[in-house]
UniProtKB/TrEMBL annotation:
Keywords: Dipeptidase, Hydrolase, Metal-binding, Metalloprotease, Protease, Zinc. Pfam families: Peptidase_M20 (PF01546). GO terms for biological process: L-arginine biosynthetic process; proteolysis. One of its GO terms (molecular function) is dipeptidase activity. Its EC number is 3.4.13.-. Belongs to the peptidase M20A family. The lineage of its organism: Bacteria, Bacillati, Bacillota, Clostridia, Eubacteriales. Its cofactor is Zn(2+). The keyword Metal-binding applies. It is an enzyme of class 3 (hydrolase). SUPFAM superfamilies: Bacterial exopeptidase dimerisation domain, Zn-dependent exopeptidases. This is Sapep family Mn(2+)-dependent dipeptidase.
Length: 431
């Protein structure tokens, strides 16, 4: 029986397994012994490995940092690399964020990013096993635990495990992605004096467009507040959202009550809230391989008179980190801010005609009829953490992108398409 038919026969079980993993609210928590990403992430990791074992696969827990489900023999292996941690649910869902089937959709945090696609890969591997397809290399599904928070899960995995010879991560768009921009997280801090603020905060994660921001303050001895709502989106596509922090800064700047903070607010507004490509700061870089720089104002918080503002930048693959950071540093240090790079992931780039990318593209084209070229993205994936890995799905062209958003979902039809593509891709890479 071919892999596609096996996957179709297991459709109900595939959906059931997605819902089982999505039922875990696996947001990173306090690290504990053997649980570097916290108890909730550790729990879903154990559930995933038990699931793999129930289907007859070899499994391994790599010191709590990652889990492995493996099939086949051979010295080398092909990898499918995904993650089990999720971003916070947030408020305002109309469906169950811990899993719900409604019509032709499966809702829940992680259905697209990244539990649903990894379960699709698991069922693809089940089909590979049941089909008896001849393989030269082992196939490993690797489940990371701290992708959303930039943790050291894959770094720790590679301390004891060798690199794969090729593979993919189902954590972006179709078709294959051969270029990923460099990613920066920067903190801009300033001590505030002579103000009437009690609190100011917005954003949940720096790689998300903030959907809420608020300030509490004193006016004539009375406590008052201002709140702003936005629309969440992934930090790599801020144009798809509406930034609540930007709205908060503008709203405060317009009120005479905050005139003592006008200079600080003006600096933040002009440089961070006026555009999404950094052109006001002179860092609107662009190249043919990956496109234009992307800027997201992700978080802001006032604590003990200390204002911290966090920005997430994706820069084109042919530029260096310093091409971006030095101009921003100069601008903000002149205005009394301190500048700190919290994290940096360099760019990734493979030629479009690399052998393993062509195999992925051929499988995708055969399954979908779409013969598009490989893509470049601003999002950062696990592809940067391992050799010969590129992002590959799960978002099909023309589909709504609900990554990191309220009512995240995946179409059941697309989940099945992913499973078929991933099964055939694993065979092509491993045979």
């Amino acid at each position: 029986m071919d892999v596609n038919r096996i996957i179709e026969n297991n459709k109900d079980k595939l959906i059931e397994d997605v819902l089982k993993l999505v039922s875990y609210e696996s947001v990173q928590g306090e690290a504990k012994e053997g649980m570097p990403a916290g108890e909730k992430v550790a729990a879903v990791l154990e559930e995933t490995l038990a699931m793999g074992k129930s289907y007859g696969f070899r499994t391994m827990n790599v010191d709590g940092h990652a889990g492995v489900i493996e099939y086949g023999e051979g010295e080398d292996y092909v990898a499918v690399l995904g993650h089990l941690d999720v971003v916070p649910v947030g408020e305002g869902w109309t469906k169950n964020p811990l899993g719900e089937v409604s019509g032709d959709r499966i809702y829940g945090r992680g259905t697209m990013d990244d539990k649903g696609p990894m379960v699709a890969a698991l069922h693809g591997l089940i089909a590979v096993k049941e089909s008896g397809a001849p393989l030269k290399h082992r196939i490993r599904l690797i489940f990371g635990t701290s992708e959303e928070t930039g943790g050291a899960d894959i770094v720790n995995y590679l301390k004891s495990e060798k690199q794969p010879i090729s593979g993919f991560t189902p954590d972006a768009d179709f078709p294959a992605i051969n270029a990923e921009m460099g990613i920066l997280v920067i903190r801009l801090s300033k001590e505030l004096k002579d103000h009437n603020l009690l609190s100011l905060e917005g954003g949940q994660a720096v790689n998300m467009v903030p959907d809420r921001a608020s300030v509490r303050y004193l006016e004539s001895g009375e406590e008052k507040s201002l709140s702003f709502e936005g629309v969440s989106a992934h930090g790599s596509t801020p144009h798809k959202g509406k930034n609540a922090i930007s709205a908060l800064i503008r709203g405060m700047k317009e009120k005479p009550l905050f005139s003592d903070l006008k200079d600080t607010l003006s600096v933040l507004e002009y440089n961070l809230a006026m555009d999404l490509d950094g052109h006001n700061m002179g860092v609107d870089l662009e190249d043919e391989a990956s496109g234009k720089l992307v800027l997201n104002l992700g978080k802001i918080k006032l604590e003990n008179n200390h204002l911290d503002t966090y920005i997430n930048i994706r820069y084109p693959v042919t530029f260096s980190m310093e091409d971006v950071t030095e101009k921003i540093r100069s601008i903000f240090e002149k205005e009394g801010f301190s500048f700190e790079i919290l994290s940096h992931d360099g760019p990734l780039y493979y030629p479009k005609d690399a052998a393993f990318i062509r195999k992925l593209m051929d499988v995708y084209a055969k399954e979908t009829g779409d013969e598009s070229e490989p893509l470049a993205i601003g999002g950062g994936t696990y592809a940067k953490m391992m050799q010969n890995i590129v992002a590959f799905g799960p978002l099909l062209p023309g589909r709504e992108d609900t990554l990191h958003q309220l009512d995240e979902y995946i179409l059941t039809e697309d989940l099945m398409t992913c499973a078929r593509i991933y099964a055939n891709a694993m065979i092509e890479l491993a045979k």
